[in-house]
Amino acid sequence: MKTLNYLACLMLCLMSLPMWAVGNGGGEKDAPAAALFSFDEAAVYQSVEELTELERFVKANAGTTLSDLQEANHNLVAELTFADPAQAALSPLDGPLGIPSFIWGFCLGIIGLAVVYFVTEDTDETKKALWGCIISSIVGGVAGALSSLQ
Amino acid sequence: MRIFLLISIIMLPITSYGQHFYRVEADFTIKEKLNDSLSQLTIGRAYYDQKRENLLYQVSFPEPQIWFLSDSNFYRVQNEGDSVSRQTISPLTVQASVFNMVLSDQLGTFGLSDSMYQKVSTVNQGGMVITTLEPLEAFKPYLGRVLISRKGKLVQGVILMDTAGEIASKQFYRDYDLSGGLPFPREIIQLSYQFGKQVSTRITTFENIQFNAEDTHQLYHYQLPTK
Lengths: 150, 227
Description:
The complex is a heterodimer. Chain A is mainly α. In chain A, 71% of the residues lie in helices and 1% in strands. The model of chain B is unreliable at 12-17 (pLDDT under 50). The interface between A and B is large, with 70 and 82 residues.
């Protein structure tokens, strides 16, 4: 029975080990990493307030479509410019990992471009990443030139 | 008897995770604002089957239509099948969806655990456990850091940085539904940045989250219209 108790204790220790490791791992104790996860919540919700009103209306009136509202020149859509539904269909899903292709190109340069190309095999997505790559190069070049003048 | 007890103890971690979740469906709303000018509102219900690796969006707004994602294909079915269009997409679109990440327990690592990144530090700050991932040495000239914050096992936020250390994207996973068997975020806020300026805001909300539903079987086994 002693052996059994020992094994049970050993297993409990082993099972709790990963939690202990996470809780005590790493350095950077003073780095303000938590601050990076803050954002202006009120501003974010404010920016989509018109869409939230539209959402409430649509949910309260099942079957309502955007074209119905636009044809009726409904005030909830009158002030909004909607992306072309045909072009926008993939927008909420766009880019690898949901990151817009432009950002892949801008942030990751040629590697980002390759990621977009090989992963999406989509010419439009690759073009967006290419623009990001070009703009990134220009920004980098201008910044380098300015710093060399100083 | 002792052997039976020993086997029971060894099997405990396995049997405690006995229920296998392979399907999830939820009502969704996506609100998006791009450059303070273009707007987008999408409402519907999504169905994901992990075994078939199919993701179906039954969209009701802006216009009724089906979005069907399978492997590297995106099909848009309109007007009850009169119009079907196909587009090639990244297979990662389905793999990196919140539905797959929840079912495969990858949300905590944002699916980056087996990638070009490695964990460099884990700290406790502001009531969160924050893990910093850095690209492997060969990719450092091209990839920036990724920070993932968690409370318990639940991911709260993900920050993607560029090589200069500027924030490119922030994502926040909030208001988890814990009633269905697996934790599922009811709200995802995504903020994208360019040149240090926020350029887009996307808020995705989920309601009526259901795992392993059988009464919507036909939507998990969706067949594209043949005409």
